[in-house]
UniProtKB/TrEMBL annotation:
Organism, scientific name: Gulbenkiania mobilis
InterPro entries noted in UniProt: ADH-like_C, ADH-like_N, ADH_Zn_CS, GroES-like_sf, NAD(P)-bd_dom_sf
Keyword terms, alphabetized: Metal-binding, Oxidoreductase, Zinc
Cofactors: Zn(2+)
Domain Alcohol dehydrogenase-like N-terminal positions: 25-153
Protein name: Threonine dehydrogenase-like Zn-dependent dehydrogenase
Taxonomic path: Bacteria, Pseudomonadati, Pseudomonadota, Betaproteobacteria, Neisseriales
Family: Belongs to the zinc-containing alcohol dehydrogenase family.
Keyword Oxidoreductase belongs to the record: yes
PANTHER family assigned to the protein according to its UniProt record, in alphabetical order: DEHYDROGENASE, ZINC-CONTAINING, PUTATIVE (AFU_ORTHOLOGUE AFUA_2G02810)-RELATED, ZINC-TYPE ALCOHOL DEHYDROGENASE-LIKE
Length: 404
């Protein structure tokens, strides 16, 4: 089969690789009809995340048709059209029983990325996301093996196109969990740092939950313009405004917003010092976005972090967070928990995640898709790949770096 493989920094290639096979009784084999490039994939593309090996198949946002099932699979059957969550969860461990699916204790045989790990068990394995998370093949391919198929895949109705439901695999639940963690409700004020796909999904979900004012901070004008037109955000370009948090405070009666969402993560465009420290591996993540989020949030408010972080962070300003009595909520998304609810919102027309798609490409052009997305070319917001061409499986047309 054809699959997009990692070969080194800024080097990904579509190659012929062996077809996947059933390995466990609760596996399925999925024929991929649509897969997307995520901002988390770009972290790996840029060589920022260790644990990758040449030939690894990338991709954790995908969906398709069930081609084969193991003898213990009861949730789906051959021919079902399903979306697959990016985390792999067993469904019966301590955390899965609490519906904290990304903390599953049984699907990641590797160590994860916690630095001060002690003897704590690893969290869930992930598709296409380094050998720290189990080394599972990803979904930017013609076929993919999906373990734990009685827990992950969600059957979707044929009436909804691939474009409408594909993002149930990651960025839509991630944006939704971010606003739920932020406590967004009717009348809330919110600041979203990062006008990338996760930032867009957070804005869409915040609007759905009744947010009154949404500030969005980024430095790509075309992304901010889209967010302003689509979600009614108040755009702030940090290339033009030295201190976005100060602008937000002045616009909220000198209090700050009820909640800030960091939809950027560890590659936030920070100071020269932070860049140098990260490059020489003395720091794992830039603290720029988090410092701004802390500063922009009112006393007693919440900072919600869906953006990926790892390692040390320079200038975290924990004292400021303490003095303001802030609550922090963060972590990988418990996708399986949110997928059914979000599918209902899509079916009812309350959410239209497909509007963010700017590029449809065949899988054969995946390397170009990575470059377009990474370099912010052609006003790229989100790239969807299809193995058989730019339409498949019912799909329809549809500084600070952004996650998603």
């Amino acid at each position: 089969m054809k699959a997009l493989t990692y070969q080194g920094t800024l080097d990904v290639r579509v190659e012929n690789v062996p077809d996947p096979i059933l390995e466990e009784a609760d596996d399925i084999i999925l024929r991929v009809t649509a897969t997307a490039i995520c901002g988390s994939d770009l972290h790996m593309y840029r060589g920022k995340i260790p644990g990758l090996e040449a030939g690894d198949i990338l991709g954790h946002e995908f969906m398709g048709i069930v081609e084969d099932v193991g003898p213990a699979v009861t949730r789906v059957k051959k021919g079902d059209r399903v979306v697959v969550p990016f985390t792999i969860s067993c469904g019966h461990c301590f955390f899965c029983e609490k519906e904290l699916f990304s903390a599953c204790e049984n699907t990641n045989p590797a160590r994860g990325t916690i630095m001060n790990k002690k003897s704590i068990r690893s969290g869930a394995g992930m598709f296409g996301y380094t050998h720290f998370y189990g080394g599972y093949d990803g979904g930017q391919a013609e076929y993919v093996r999906v373990p734990k198929a009685n827990v992950g895949p969600l059957v979707v109705p044929d009436i909804l196109s691939d474009d409408k439901v594909l993002f149930l695999s990651d960025i839509l639940p991630t944006g939704y969990q971010a606003v739920v963690n932020a406590g967004v409700t009717h009348g809330s004020t919110v600041a979203i740092f990062g006008a990338g796909p996760v930032g867009y999904m957070a804005a869409a979900c915040a609007r759905m939950l009744g947010a009154e004012r949404i500030f969005m901070i980024d430095h790509h004008p075309y992304r901010l313009d889209f967010a302003a037109q689509t979600y009614g955000v108040i755009p702030i370009n940090f290339d033009q405004v030295d201190d976005p948090a100060e602008v937000i405070i002045e616009a909220t009666d000198y209090r700050g917003v009820d909640a800030s969402i960091d939809a950027i993560g560890f590659e936030a465009k920070g100071s020269l010092v932070e860049t140098v420290l990260a490059n020489i591996k003395l720091e794992g993540s830039s603290g720029k976005a988090l410092r701004q989020a802390i500063a922009a949030t009112r006393r007693g408010g919440t900072v919600s972090v869906p953006g990926v972080y790892a390692g040390f962070i320079h200038g975290f300003l924990f004292g400021d967070a303490f003095e303001k009595g802030l609550t922090f909520k963060m972590g990988q998304t418990h996708v399986q928990h949110f997928m059914p609810e979000l599918l209902e919102h899509i079916a009812a027309g309350r959410l239209e995640p497909e509007v963010i798609i700017s590029h449809h490409l065949p899988l054969s052009e995946a390397a170009r898709g990575y470059k377009i997305f990474n370099d912010k070319m052609e006003s790229c917001r989100k790239v969807v790949l299809t193995p058989d061409g730019p339409r498949n499986g019912g799909a329809t047309a549809g500084g600070l770096l952004s996650q998603g």
